Amino acid sequence: MTMPRPRPRPFGRALCAMITPFTADGGPDLDGAQKLASHLVAEGCDGLVLNGTTGESPTTTDAEKTALVRAVREAVGDRAAVVAGVGSASTRHTVELGRAAQNAGADGLLVVTPYYSRPPQAALTAHFRQVADAVGIPLMLYDIPGRTGTRIEPDTLMRVSAHPRIVAVKDCAYDLLGSSKVIARTSLAYYSGCEETNLPLYAVGAAGFVSTVANAAPRPMRAVLDAFDAGRTAEATALNQLTLPLTELMMASGLPGTVTAKALLGAIGLPAGPVREPLQPADRETAGGLLAAYEELARLYPPDRQAGPAPALLGPAQSWT
C-alpha cells in the first residue's frame, strides 16, 4: 500500500479571511487593519487573506487593495503569510492586481474564478495559467461556484496543478468527493473556505482553512486542527461542535459574512467600522445574537485550555480575546 504524501501547507494551516476595516466615514482604516492583523496573528492565525469576499473586494479600489496589503505586511512582518485577493472578471485586470499585490509584499495571490461571463473550463485553464505566468509568487485558486456561476472542475484543477506557481485551492464547492480526488492525485494544498467543511476536508487531507469566523474566534477555529493533528480526533469533533452556533449565525443567517463579522468585531471592541453599500449593517437584534453566541463560545473555550479534559469540563468561563 502506498502511503499518502505529507500535506503541503504553503500558507500555513489556520488562515483568516480578514475584513477590511473602514473609518466611520467609510474610508480605509489602515491603522485599524494593522491592529486587527496583529491581533489575529497573536491569536494563532498562520496567514491572513486580504481583499477577498469578506474583505469587500467588490467595493474597494485597486489603490485601496494595494495599500491594505502593504499595511498588513508591515504589521505582521514574517510572522504570518499574507495572501492577497486579486481575482476579477478580467484576466488583464487580475494580472495588474496580482503584480501590484506582489510589489506590496504579498506572499501569495487568491485568484477567484472569473465571474458573470461564465467561461468554459478551457478558458479557465488559460486564465489561471496566464496569471501564474505573469507573477513571481504562488497562487491559491478560489473555487466558489455559488458566487461566480462557474465551477473549477476537478479535471481542470488536476490539469493546472502542473504549473509550479499554482499551489493551493480555497474550496467552497461543497463537493467532498471531487475535492478528495484532487487532494489524492495532486500536490495542491486544499483550504476549506466554508467553516462547516473545515474538519471533514481536513480529515481527507486538506491543508487547513480560510475562515471568516476566525476574525472573531481565531483560537477555537485553530484548536480543531491542533487536536486533530495531535491524534485527538474525538476532541477535534467536540471542539468543532462548539463553534457551530457562532458559525451558523455568522455564515448561514441570510446575511453576508462581512456584515456579521463586522457587527461582531465592533461589539467586542476590535477594528471593523461600517460595511460599504450595497451591503447594509446588521440590525441590533442580529448583533445581539452574534455577541451572545460569541460569549457562550468564549465561556466554553477559555484561553488557558490545555490538552486533556473534554471541552465540557474545562475551567471557569473567561474571554479569549
UniProtKB/TrEMBL annotation:
Residues that coordinate or bind pyruvate: 54, 210
MF (Gene Ontology): 4-hydroxy-tetrahydrodipicolinate synthase activity
Matches recorded under PROSITE patterns: DHDPS_1 (PS00665), DHDPS_2 (PS00666)
UniProt KW Cytoplasm keyword: yes
Transit peptide listed as a keyword: no
Location of this chain's protein in the cell: Cytoplasm
Site (Part of a proton relay during catalysis): 53, 116
Pfam families: DHDPS
SUPFAM superfamilies given in the database record: Aldolase
Enzyme Commission identifier(s): 4.3.3.7
Reported function: Catalyzes the condensation of (S)-aspartate-beta-semialdehyde [(S)-ASA] and pyruvate to 4-hydroxy-tetrahydrodipicolinate (HTPA).
Subunit structure: Homotetramer; dimer of dimers.
Protein name stated in the entry: 4-hydroxy-tetrahydrodipicolinate synthase
Species of origin: Streptomyces wuyuanensis
Upper taxonomic lineage: Bacteria, Bacillati, Actinomycetota, Actinomycetes, Kitasatosporales
